[in-house]
Amino acid sequence: MSPELLAALHAQVQGNGQLLSLAAELLRHSHDPATLIARLSEQQDVERFLVRQIDESSSDEERTVLRAVSALLGYPATLAPSAPSSTAAVCSASFNR
Prior knowledge:
By secondary structure, the chain is mostly helical. It is 69% helix and 0% strand.
């Protein structure tokens, strides 16, 4: 990744390590990192965008595992606006340990 794209990514996640890790996971599988990073700048809620993108790109098996881990951690497995998704719950939990 070019230094310019890396700087743009860092600015979009405001240096947040958790969001940077989520973005890095998406970028690993992206055929067009520049477009993904540009889409980040269009988002009002970068975290929600990243979590949704990861959730949408996950297989049914991966989602099943995330839901199970989320339930074990006591988080709801929903993308309702008032509650974190299983993906967000698991990602947050792994960074808060």
